[in-house]
Amino acid sequence: MQDIDFKQFYERKSVCLWVSNIDDWRRVDSRHLIVWAPNKRRPYLVELHGSCSGLLGNDTLAFKGRTERICGLVGESVFVGDERCGIANIYPLEVDEVLRLLPKKNDKATWR
Questions:
Q1: What pTM does this model have?
Q2: Is the dihedral of CA 78, 84, 89, 91 positive or negative?
């Protein structure tokens, strides 16, 4: 997999998302995923507090926040099977950035 410098995204302001608006997701690596909310024209990079090994082999996940929104606050998580992965930040992305971040087509979790 390519080596990605995530610092460019970390300089952006973190945003909040309504959990019910998350339309789709793809993993970037064990610590980052891209979600689309409310549709494929609005991608976001979700940064996790640490490595979430379950992202590498699962097709289903659940988002849990204190309210119906996730913002990267304490207690907000992504659940992948039985694994709980804390959400650190959520950054807006441009479509061209999504294409650079996603794994190649031979990877199971590519963008549709």
A1: 0.84
A2: negative
